[in-house]
Every structure is written in C-alpha cells, then in structure tokens.
Specification:
This protein is α+β, with helices and mostly antiparallel strands. The chain has 2 domains: 2-45, no CATH class; 54-159, Glutaredoxin, CATH 3.40.30.10. The protein contains 6 helices and 7 strands. The strands form 2 sheets. The protein has a 4-stranded mixed sheet, with helices on both faces.
C-alpha cells in the first residue's frame, strides 16, 4: 500500500477542480486520485498492487497481512468486485496490503496457489492462509470474517 504525507485540504482542492470541470472523471490522474482516501492526515492509495513476481508475492505473504484477489480481465465478476474490495478494505482495514493477481498474465503464479477458477480471494497473515473464498461469496461476509481474524491476530500479538 502506498502512503504519502499530505495536507487535508489537498482532497478539497482536488474535488473543486473536478466539480468545476478542470478535470474529467475519465482522466488517468483523476481516476487515480478518486481511488485515494484521506486517513488521518495521510493520503492512502487504496488501489491494489499488481504485476508482482512470485517472489514478491511470497515475501508479502510471509511478512505481513495481505489480501489477494486472483482474477482476470475477461472475468466480469472479478472486475466488478475489485473496486468494491479496494474501497471496503481502505475503509475498514487500511493496514492490510491488497494484491491483484491477473491469472491471464501470471498463470504460473495462479497455478502455484491452486487457483483454477475465478475470482478467488485469499487472506494471509505472516505466511499462514487464514481465509479463502472462491467463485461466489458475499463481500459483507468476507469483511466480517476478515475483521474477526484480524481481531484475533491482534489479541494474540498483544498477549505475547
């Protein structure tokens, strides 16, 4: 997740530019800025990381909490849930790294993770798979399950 320090008024200035017609919603910069969320004086880019190598993915899995969405460009469900998942996780769990794995561009990575149908969501904390959902699942239920796992993980970390 990319985090940069910023002034809170930056989002206000951006929204003024957008509403006054100086930027259009189709601009690449505009789309990128619309994916950013203001969290306590920081601008957090809520978009998922992508185009990672197998080694980078393995490093993320082992060193932090990471949520992986395995999808493809021709998967309508994958493309529909990706922005919803980004927004949901930015609001509720900004500490969790989000990764999108395109199974068309990275079939070997998907095969090594046992992905043979799309979409699939996998949630890892420090190298351990805690949650996996495939094909059809509720984002609300997914969020609730992630919340429960994160609370248990934090409680275990506090007690040790």
């Amino acid at each position: 997740m990319y985090v940069s320090s910023s002034q809170p008024e930056a989002l206000f200035n951006f929204s003024l530019l957008l509403t006054n017609g100086f930027m259009t919603p189709g601009d690449t910069l505009t789309r990128r800025l619309l994916n950013m969320t203001d969290l306590g004086g920081f601008i957090v880019d809520a978009s998922m990381q992508s185009d990672l190598t197998y080694q980078q993915i393995e490093h993320l899995k082992k060193t932090q909490a990471a949520l992986f969405l395995f999808g493809g460009p021709q998967c309508g469900v994958c493309q529909a849930i990706k922005p919803k998942l980004e927004n949901l996780m930015a609001r509720q769990h900004p500490e969790i790294t989000l990764v999108y794995v395109d199974c068309v561009n990275s079939p070997a990575v998907c095969a090594q993770h046992g992905i043979f149908s799309l979409p699939v969501v996998q949630f890892y904390i420090e190298g351990r798979l805690y949650l996996e959902r495939g094909r059809s699942f509720s984002l609300v239920e997914l969020s609730d399950q992630i919340e429960r796992i994160v609370l248990l993980w934090k409680a275990a970390a506090d007690s040790s």
